[in-house]
Design a protein that fits this description.
The structure holds two protein chains of two kinds. Chain A contains no helices and eleven strands. Chain A is mostly beta strands. Chain B is mainly β. In chain B, about 0% of the residues lie in helices and about 60% in strands. Chain B contains no helices and eleven strands. The model of chain B has no long low-confidence stretch (mean pLDDT about 95). The chains are: A mainly beta, B mainly beta.
Chain lengths: ~120, ~110
């Protein structure tokens, strides 16, 4: 597509529920990143994919968070047993290059998650 | 510890005026420095990317500078417009395999008429 697409744009859920957030990167971009941004803060790194594999998942806060990219394009961020502290904007970005982090990142509009 | 500090936290200026945003970093080994503009409710958009050998880069009315010796960068906005109102985020890349990008918290700029 023309840009990085994220769905849903807004998600309101109850504490304890399961949530999936989807990211459709720019066509041909092999690198895909997930970030979490809380109000008034900069984006916080969660996980990074090269193709289908997670090259770096050191930013995932705990085992309730998991992400997949089975075919090397669309990625899904999965959050189990959501907690109020998970409320944030989840940003996805893609890049044509990877490995040296010099490639330009293109961000989606984000998915705003609110856990009640 | 790798850190990126931005100042001021927020700034209000009149339309047409110039302004300069600051970024100090303690990141090693350094790879690159980026400035992003983030409109409210939108994703960040890249303004400039500078590597170690570059000390200035322009993108329209935006000019970024980099002093790798003092580990400082600035973003200068010339002849501000109402549409410049946004958060400006400084991001420093760590020179290692993978995707170590250290984000600052951003400077919120408000341009008023």
């Amino acid at each position: 597509g023309a840009g990085v697409s994220q769905t849903p744009s807004n998600k309101v859920t109850e504490k304890g529920k399961y949530v999936e957030l989807r990211c459709d990167p720019i066509s041909g971009h092999t690198a895909l990143y997930w970030y979490r941004q809380s109000l008034g803060q900069g984006p916080e790194f969660l996980i990074y994919f090269q193709g289908t594999g997670a090259a770096d998942d050191s930013g995932l806060p705990n085992d309730r968070f998991f992400a997949v990219r089975p075919e090397g394009s669309v990625s899904t961020l999965k959050i189990q047993r959501t907690e109020r502290g998970d409320s944030a904007v989840y940003l996805c970005a893609s890049s044509l290059t990877f490995g040296t982090n010099t490639g330009e990142l293109f961000f989606g509009e984000g998915s705003r998650l609110t856990v009640l | 510890k790798n850190q990126v500090e931005q100042s001021p936290q927020s700034l209000i200026i009149l339309e047409g005026k110039n302004c300069t945003l600051q970024c100090n970093y303690t990141v090693s080994p350094f790879s690159n420095l980026r400035w992003y503009k983030q409109d409210t409710g939108r994703g960040p958009v890249s303004l400039t990317i500078m590597t170690f050998s570059e000390n200035t880069k322009s993108n329209g009315r935006y000019t970024a500078t980099l002093d790798a010796d003092t580990k400082q960068s600035s973003l200068h906005i010339t002849a501000s417009q109402l549409s410049d109102s946004a958060s400006y985020i400084c991001v420093v890349g760590v020179n290692q395999a993978g995707t170590a990008l250290i984000f600052g918290k951003g400077t919120t700029l408000s341009v008023s008429s």
